[in-house]
Amino acid sequence: MSLAKRIIPCLDCDNGRVVKGVKFLDIRDAGDPVEISKRYCDQGADEITFLDITASSNERSTTIHTVEAIASQVFIPLTVGGGIRKLQDIRNMLNAGADKVGINTSAVLNPEFVREAAERFGSQCIVVAIDAKCVSKPGAEKRWEIFTHGGRNPTGLDAIVWAKKMVSYGAGEILLTSMDRDGTKHGFDLELNLAISEAVSVPVIASGGVGNLQDLVDGIVIGKADAVLAASIFHFGQYTIPQAKQYMREHGVEVR
Amino acid sequence: MKHVAVIDYGMGNLHSVAKALEHVGRGIKVSITADPAILRAADRLVFPGVGAMRDCMGEIKRLCIDEILREQVKLKPVLAICVGMQALMQSSDENGGVACIGLFAGKVQRFADCLQDASGQALKVPHMGWNRVRQSRPHDMWKGIADNDRFYFVHSYFAVPDAPADMVGSADYPAPFCAAMSRKNIFAVQFHPEKSQRNGLLLLENFLSWDGQS
Fold it and tell me: Is the Cβ of B19 closer than 8 Å to some Cβ of chain A?
């Protein structure tokens, strides 16, 4: 096999600035997403994910400008998520230079949106982001449920059933975040990852909980993910992308 | 001034390929257009494409892009990318069968379901990510690019040219498939050079100086 497993740094941006704890920069001015994207690209990141957490929708134009600026300097795939609610939002992001869009809450509110988006723009650019939390009792068979709004709102949807449904509606990729692990640095929820990866035919990106480089290897080898997404281990300067790739290579994972 | 026209038939993201061309070809003019006059005036053409083949061919025919291409490939270098490459074949299995432009003999088929690698791990479709491209034969477009180096792919279908001589590059998923083909003025790639960082930019740079016909 020669298809490489991907490492995807994720930039959480608020009103055009990277906000998720960038150690080396003042917290009020957390970092320029264009500069940071370019650095990750030069280091050998396989893709960039840009997550817009801007609360106010009238600041959306800032996001479009930022995406345009990243896309004119970074020649690797760029996924933009956050606030994608209408076909026009997707059109705007693709025109700005995004290659894929991440759809999360809007998919839960209106699954047909995913079908329409895939038919219009092609499955290759539709990433459905799933935030899942374990809801089974200890000892019982594991069950995960979909949550929206940053893990606050339960939906009653079973994560595996939902992932399969989204693929049948045209999702080209699943970005799977464990709400139990996100921000904990305890590693991916490997059981969740394996369950989803084996249930769907499209690539799965593991997200949420990376604390060290072994977590990345485990996500791929045990969780059977096709790509791993991380933010803080790279932003904080804890590890560089080349260090992550070297570690993965030494542990039998094919990387670029 | 060199003038590259990126053929716009309303399918997908042309910003990326235009930006990448502007990045490597300082001072060149890049147009994104379906205007036959501009396509005829340009020094070289880029024929990109994403999305479903039926929709792509519908627009290609409506805008007479197929006729312009048949005429222009005799005159200037053309780089086809992804679905643009597939559209050059005679037909595609996508959407229950679609007749394509037919500049290359052969068809377009889908990766089989339930593919596995040598260790038995399931392979996902779309084939998405960085894969190695074997250079089947030397070509000006490979200049400066190492054999077996990686490019970014995202696709579920691939071209199967009838003539082995048309193939200039292949990749494995898990069986070898055609990743690049060329004849005369046409060079066509299944991967995305505009998203393949250094190697992709090199290929685009090579395209700007390639005189075709090789």
Answer: yes
Compute the distance between CA of residue A247 and CA of residue B167 in angstroms, rounded to an integer.
36
CATH number at residue B186: 3.40.50.880
Q: Answer yes or no: is A1 within a domain.
A: no
**B42 in a structural domain:** yes
**Which of B 161-180 lie inside 8 A of A, CB atoms?**
171-174
Domain assignment of residue A103, given as a range? 6-250
Q: Which two tokens stand for residue B149?
A: 């180096």
pLDDT digits (tens, 9 = 90+) for A82-128: 989 999 999 899 888 899 999 999 999 999 999 999 988 889 999 99
Instruction: Report the domain count for chain B.
Output: 1
Q: Is residue A256 one of the residues assigned to a domain?
A: no
Q: Which of B6, B13, B157, B172 has the most A C-beta neighbours within 10 Å, making it the best mutation to test the interface with A?
A: B13
B88: exposed, middle or buried (Cβ count in 10 Å: 0-12, 13-18, 19+): buried
B51 inside 8 A of chain A by CB: yes
Q: Quick check: is B214 in a domain?
A: no
Query: Is residue A227 situated within a structural domain?
Result: yes
> What residues in A contact B50, CB-CB < 8 Å?
121-122, 124-125
B39-43, Cβ contacts within 8 angstroms, sequence gap of 24 or more: B39/B5, B39/B7, B39/B68, B39/B72, B40/B68, B40/B72, B41/B3, B41/B5, B42/B3, B42/B4, B42/B5, B42/B76, B43/B2, B43/B3, B43/B4, B43/B76
Whether residue B173 is predicted with pLDDT greater than 90 in this model: the reply is yes
What pLDDT, on a 0 to 100 scale, did the predictor assign at position A59?
65
Domain containing residue B19: 3-209
Chain A residues near residue B156 by CB distance under 8 angstroms: 123
Instruction: Tell me the mean pLDDT in the region B149-156.
Output: 96
Alpha-carbon Rg for chain B in angstroms: 16
Residue B16 lies in a domain: yes
Q: What is the pLDDT of residue B10?
A: 80
Average pLDDT, chain A: 90
Specify the CATH number for the domain of residue A39.
Answer: 3.20.20.70
